[in-house]
Amino acid sequence: MDVRDALDRLDRIHDQLTRGEVYRGFRVPAVALVGALGLCAAALQPHCVPHGDSRAFVLFWSAVGAVGALVGFGVAVRSYFFREDEFERRRTRRVMGQFLPCVLAGALVTFALGSASEFVPLLPGLWAVAFGLGVIAVRPHLPPATGVVGLAYVLYGCALLAWKPDAPPGWCVGGAFGVGHLAMAVVLRNQSKGNADE
Predict the structure, then answer these.
(1) Which residues make Cβ contacts (< 8 Å) with residue 186, sequence separation at least 6?
(2) pLDDT per position as a tens digit, 60-105
(3) Is 147 part of any domain?
(4) Residue 1 domain-assigned?
(5) pLDDT at 106
(6) What is the pTM of this model?
(7) Scanning 47, 140, 144, 188, which has its CA 20 to 30 A from the CA of 115?
(8) Which residue segment(s) compose the domain that 61 sits in?
(9) Rounded CA separation 164/50 (Å)
(10) What is the mean pLDDT of the chain?
């Protein structure tokens, strides 16, 4: 066996190990904080967004989403650069490589449809579906109950797409992402408790 074959085998072993272990880059406090941010934003929407103003709706929720992404991914990025070894960084790259395309798709849909007021009522449903698919994509690296949370996002998003309110209320977005993130925080906390008990 030459060196190249040995390195290829080591890479395959690392890939198998990264698939088999639970990713710990998403921290419970950060995920719960994003959930609380979503619920607070849902409560604030009537005071910040004039009723029926689709442009203000898109800008408001885009800003909330950007802050949520900074909080949620900021912890993982910090861990990547300052705490993780090369093996853990490989796992982080794999998880982010599976999750981020769905988030990017949500951003591109917002950019494409957000300026046309007739399409804005579709955005909350599309956001929930895209995010749910991202959660499902990383389910092999997270606790098993993650799949249930991802499926709930997708089903909720489909219900919003079928409903299509003319002026989406705050809970369409903030309620979904708030409750979804809090549910994910519970799933992650239960997983970490289970590992501590072992």
Answers:
(1) none
(2) 999 999 999 999 888 888 888 988 888 888 888 889 999 999 999 9
(3) yes
(4) no
(5) 93
(6) 0.84
(7) 47
(8) 29-197
(9) 18
(10) 87
